[in-house]
C-alpha cells in the first residue's frame, strides 16, 4: 500500500486529496472450472467528475469581495489510515504497537481485522475476514484503554453479541444515522468479523500530547499460522485553504 498527499489545481480550484492505491489482482476464475490465471491491470486514465457552479453577477461580486480580504477557508473531513501486521506469531496473546500519533491525529475509531492464509492465494477469498477465535481486544492510547471492560468473547460457543453490537453501532456514532448494519448477525462471523472500537471520548491529557496507539488481543487458542492483522485508524482532520496563495495549512 502506498499513500501520497497531493495538491491538484483544476480550473483554478486547488484540491487536497490523499491518494491511496493497492492492487492485488491475483486470480480470474473461468466459470464452472477451477482454473486460475494471473492478470495485470494497467490504469491509463482516471476522471474526477465535479459539479461546475456558475454564480449570478450579484453573488459573484460578493464572492470576489470575500476573496479580496484574503481570509482562509476552513475545511473539515475525516482521515482513514490503514496499517498492516503481515504475519502474526502463532500464540494466544499479542501486543501490536501500531503507531505514535501527534497532537493533530488523535484516533476517533480503530477497526481491527484478521485474515488467515488469504493474501496472495488464488483459491481464497481476500474480501473476507476471519475471527481467529478472539476472546478480548484492548486499545491503548497511552495509559487510557478502550473498551473499559473485558469483552470475554467465546465465539465457538456463540458468545459474540457484544462484538456485533460494537460493529453495528458504528453507523450511529460515526455517521449519526439510524443503525442499519450491512451484515446481519448470522453473516457477521462468516464475512467480516471486524472489531470496531470507539475511542472518541478522550480526556484532556490525550489532547495535549502525542499518543502511542497500541493494541493487545487474546484468543482462545493460538492464532493460526499465516494470519495477518489490519488496523484502520479514523481521525478528524481540519485544514485551512488560502484561495489567493493556494496554501493549505493543517489545523487538526
Q: What can be said about this structure in brief?
A:
This protein is mainly β and about 250 residues long. It has helices at about 55-70, 160-170, 170-175, 185-190, 205, and strands at about 1-10, 15-20, 30, 35, 75-85, 95-100, 105-115, 135-140, 145, 195-200, 210-220, 225-240, 250.
Rg from C-alpha positions? 22 Å
Q: State the CATH topology of the domain at 76-250.
A: Adenovirus Type 2 Hexon, domain 4
Unreliable stretches, pLDDT < 50, 5 or more residues?
Answer: 1-22
> How many strands, what sense, and barrel or not for the largest sheet?
5 strands, antiparallel
What share of residues is helical? 10-25%
Through-space gap between termini: 24 Å
CATH C-level name of the domain at 76-250: Mainly Beta
CATH architecture assignment name of the domain at 76-250: Distorted Sandwich
- Tell me the number of helical segments per DSSP (H or I, 4 or more residues long): 5
Shape: globular
Structural class determined from secondary elements: mainly beta
Strand runs, count: 13
Element-level helix/strand string? EEEEHEEEEEHHHEHEEE
Oligomer: single chain
Mean pLDDT: 82
What percentage of amino acids are in beta strands?
Answer: 35-45%
Amino acid at each position: 500500500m502506498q499513500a501520497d498527499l497531493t495538491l491538484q489545481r483544476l480550473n483554478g480550484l486547488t484540491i487536497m486529496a490523499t491518494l491511496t492505491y493497492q492492487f492485488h489482482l491475483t486470480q480470474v476464475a473461468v466459470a464452472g472450472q477451477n482454473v486460475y490465471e494471473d492478470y495485470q491491470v494497467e490504469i491509463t486514465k482516471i476522471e474526477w467528475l465535479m459539479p461546475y457552479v456558475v454564480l449570478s453577477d450579484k453573488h459573484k461580486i460578493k464572492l470576489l469581495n470575500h476573496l479580496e480580504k484574503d481570509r482562509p477557508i476552513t475545511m473539515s473531513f475525516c482521515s482513514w489510515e490503514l496499517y498492516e501486521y503481515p504475519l502474526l506469531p502463532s500464540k494466544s496473546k499479542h501486543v501490536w504497537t501500531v503507531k505514535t500519533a501527534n497532537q493533530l491525529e488523535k484516533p476517533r475509531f480503530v477497526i481491527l481485522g484478521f485474515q488467515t492464509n488469504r493474501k496472495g492465494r488464488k483459491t481464497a477469498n481476500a474480501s473476507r475476514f476471519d475471527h481467529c477465535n478472539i476472546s478480548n481486544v484492548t486499545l491503548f492510547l497511552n495509559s487510557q484503554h478502550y473498551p473499559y471492560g473485558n469483552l470475554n468473547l467465546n465465539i465457538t460457543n456463540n458468545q459474540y453479541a457484544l462484538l456485533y453490537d460494537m460493529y453495528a453501532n458504528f453507523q450511529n456514532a460515526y455517521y449519526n444515522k439510524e443503525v442499519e448494519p450491512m451484515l446481519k448477525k448470522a453473516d457477521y462471523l462468516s464475512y467480516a468479523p471486524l472489531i470496531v472500537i470507539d475511542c472518541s471520548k478522550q480526556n484532556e491529557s490525550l489532547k495535549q500530547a502525542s499518543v502511542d496507539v497500541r493494541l493487545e488481543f487474546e484468543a482462545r487458542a493460538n492464532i493460526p499460522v499465516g494470519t495477518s492483522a489490519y488496523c484502520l485508524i479514523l481521525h478528524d482532520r481540519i485544514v485551512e485553504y488560502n484561495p489567493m496563495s493556494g496554501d493549505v495549512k493543517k489545523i487538526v
